[in-house]
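pinging the channel bc i need a second pair of eyes. not urgent but kinda urgent?? the chain im working w is below, pasted from the shared doc
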Amino acid sequence: MTMHVIDAHTGSAGPGPRPPRAPVLVYLVTEDWYFLSHRLPMARAARDAGYRVHVATHVGTGAEAIEREGFRLHPLDWRRGSLNPWHVFRIVRQVRRLYRSLGPDLVHHVALQPSVIGSFAAAGLPPARLNAMAGLGFGFTGRTVKALFLRTILSWLLRFMLNRPTAAVLVQNPDDRAAIMRLGVAADRVFLVPGSGVDTQTLIPLAEPEGPVTAALVARLLDDKGVRDFVAARCLLAAQGKDILFLIAGDRDPANPSSIPESEIETWKQVPGLELLGHVSDIRQVWQRAHVAVLPSRREGLPKSLLEAAAYGRPIVATDVPGCREIARAGQNAILVPPNDPQALADAIATLAADPALRCTFGKAGRELVEAEFSSRQIGAQTVALYDQLLSRSGGLLRQPAARG
């Protein structure tokens, strides 16, 4: 009996031999909460397809949730964001020791820092390596001297490590694919799967709430996410006497260089019509209160917050930048504005606030878009097809087809 390996680019199928055992897949990720929030659907799809899934990460509060899924958890002493050479050397050595011990067939490095660390750790080892660029990060979006310096170093480093014989790159939007190829990475090493998807069975459309029109931003409190522009837009609308409530759901991220200072956030608490919710574990609570989803980011991979908002049937205001425009489509389910333009942002929010019919039209279209292109079931299938293809190409195992019944 043979199985078919689905090409993640073309959807074409070819026969492959039935494997002797299930392949071992390791996810390398900085934080357990990020794995649970952004990569769980992919890992579930791999598990259900017959992969033995391991998760290597810094463990906070997510150990029980990860192990409950049947995944093997490997705690790491990771200090996310640290550029201390000793910290970097220590985590590379720890990951390399883990790779030698597990002997994985495939490692999935989730985001930029794990891709760098994991690539050094896997040097000279046989597993196929998938380096996922979930957006290009502060080094490519920041406007400071530090960001420009990091961009130069990272460009050279990525060009070197992503062209290794067993390496491949995963991006979430066409702009990032083009950016990676401009670094000199061969086109046949760069694959596009749009995010991790959302569970369309659990996230279902919500009726609009009562009360004043409310715009919500769900994001870490980073300058790169456009949080300052969101606050500035609220001040502009207040000056015009427009009664629109603004919500911000998210915490600071001290490990990120563009994190908003605590002192500045304290001043926002005095802005009329602006409510800081902090971390919200059940994001449905935000969209039960909000009429409009907003993300004025400078660049994204594919923002989960907007995918969830669209699944709940919320219209979107977002910046016309890579990642955002994959889910926020101008005139279909969203109004797009230039980045770093609080006035344009305020005008777009005011437009939707004043037009319930447009909100309804955009909300329905966004939900249909998620169902058609971004469900976790679809994205999971594309990801597993890519895993199969990488194993086949590297001469590794092909997975045992999952049992049915």
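so The longest helix spans residues 376-394. and Residues 214-373 form a domain with the Rossmann fold fold (CATH 3.40.50.2000). — does that match what u expected or am i reading it wrong
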